[in-house]
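Budget justification aside, the reviewers requested a transparent look at the raw inputs and outputs of the sequence design task funded under Objective 1. We therefore reproduce one unedited record. The lines immediately below are the structure tokens for a 440-residue chain.
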């Protein structure tokens, strides 16, 4: 009865599309004195509700039942168990309470769900080694990348695997800001001895995210540098993430920078188009969304940076398709892409070269290589020709993208132009590719 009344209140408070999409699928399994247990379709659904609508649901539950109850979401037949008072965080089996400090782990941020490509294979391999408590890559792993390329996915994956296979490991997983705030609180309360003991003596693995946010915080850097030194000397493992390489960090003490560089330093680059398409297909599968290959390719072509934007696009497509009885067309895909990344983005050499590489079934490395094999030279020449035709880049700019000088680009343009005039099949191929570029 409480859930039915809560649903009525939510129906009035939310738009009909939001209610139908996110509230109606929830099923009430049990009402307790302190909590109401709801079943959701899948883990992603639960994560999205937790992030966007949980507070509203709990507020309506309280208004309906005249007492405060927590709302717990889960999937399948087993009920969730919470860690202490931390809302929604799962207690891992056989882990003593307060043994580890960690951010709430995303259920799908595992190694199995991580799409590996040339851009991230070293970082993924290193994290797998660290998760198995293997010290072959050194005591400290430093990962840097732009936002949304998978740093947090990998650190969550390490935590998942460590707790699954070595549940007694004392893992401290915090952001740099959380570490700084905790240190300040302990200084103010004069409990720094307990703070130091927690991290120095009761820690087997330390993970600190976003180390670049400590710019100018000299005291925190000194404390963390001392901690890293103590852990490394006692054979413990450390993973640090940042948005740039150690040498590029501004406002970071040189000794601290050196300490973080004592092991493997690896970066994650933006994924190539084939990896992006696999990411799109994987995200769609997670949301039970069937996408034609043309649509997944279109999304991969246009959503090129932050992988979270792929998730946002898939969610939007799924929501829109529910309103059209599952029907999806290219106009819907274009509309979603425009909402996610904007419209009117200029064509780039990278976009064209990636398309050509895929059409000729060669890699970007092969396209940019010094090889003179016809299998690589003809696609390379076509790519240069089309880059000149569809972008505003200079011959020198196009040449740099292919590790060539401007004279090579000019030669390629003349070569393809002459071939297209003499050979109708080449002309048809070039026109077909040009049409694909215009539809990007």
């Amino acid at each position: 009865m409480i859930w039915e009344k809560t649903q009525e209140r939510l129906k009035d408070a939310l738009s009909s599309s939001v209610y139908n999409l996110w509230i109606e699928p929830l099923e009430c399994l049990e009402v307790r004195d302190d909590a109401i247990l709801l079943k959701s379709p899948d883990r992603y659904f639960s994560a999205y509700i937790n992030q966007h609508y949980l507070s509203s649901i709990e507020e309506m539950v309280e208004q309906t039942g005249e007492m405060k109850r927590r709302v717990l979401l889960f999937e399948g037949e087993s009920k969730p168990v919470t860690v202490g008072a931390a809302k929604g965080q799962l207690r891992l089996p056989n882990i003593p309470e307060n043994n580890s400090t960690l951010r709430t782990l995303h259920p799908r941020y595992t190694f199995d769900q991580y799409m590996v490509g040339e851009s991230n294979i070293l970082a993924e391999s290193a994290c797998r080694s660290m998760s198995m408590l293997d010290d072959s890559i050194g005591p400290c792993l430093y990962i840097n990348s732009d936002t949304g390329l998978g740093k947090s996915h990998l650190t969550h994956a390490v935590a998942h695997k460590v707790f699954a296979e070595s549940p007694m490991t004392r893992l401290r997983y915090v952001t740099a800001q959380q570490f700084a705030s905790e240190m300040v609180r302990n200084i103010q309360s004069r409990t720094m001895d307990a703070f130091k003991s927690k991290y120095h003596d009761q820690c087997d693995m330390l993970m600190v995210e976003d180390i670049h946010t400590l710019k100018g915080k000299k005291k925190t850097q000194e404390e963390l540098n001392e901690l890293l030194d103590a852990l490394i000397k006692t054979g413990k493992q450390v993973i640090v993430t940042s948005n740039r390489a150690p040498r590029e960090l501004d406002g970071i003490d040189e000794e601290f920078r050196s300490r973080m560089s004592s092991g493997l330093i690896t970066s994650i680059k933006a994924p190539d188009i084939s990896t992006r398409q696999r990411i799109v297909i994987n995200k769609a599968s997670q949301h039970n969304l069937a996408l034609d290959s043309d649509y997944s390719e279109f999304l991969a072509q246009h959503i090129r940076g932050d992988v979270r934007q792929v998730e946002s696009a898939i969610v939007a497509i799924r929501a829109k398709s529910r309103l059209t009885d599952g029907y999806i067309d290219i106009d819907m895909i274009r509309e979603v892409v425009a909402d996610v990344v904007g419209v009117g983005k200029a064509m780039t050499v990278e976009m064209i070269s990636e398309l050509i590489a895929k059409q000729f079934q060669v890699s970007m490395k092969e396209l940019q290589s010094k090889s003179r094999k016809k299998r690589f030279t003809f696609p390379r020449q076509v790519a240069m020709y089309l880059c000149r035709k569809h972008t505003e880049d200079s011959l020198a700019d196009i040449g740099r993208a292919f590790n060539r000088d401007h004279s090579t680009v000019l030669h390629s343009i003349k070569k393809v132009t002459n071939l297209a005039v003499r050979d109708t099949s080449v002309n048809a191929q070039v026109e077909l590719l040009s049409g694909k570029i215009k539809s990007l």
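The first strand starts at residue 27 and ends at 31. The domain at 121-268 is CATH 3.40.50.300 (Rossmann fold). Computational costs for records of this kind are itemized in the attached budget.
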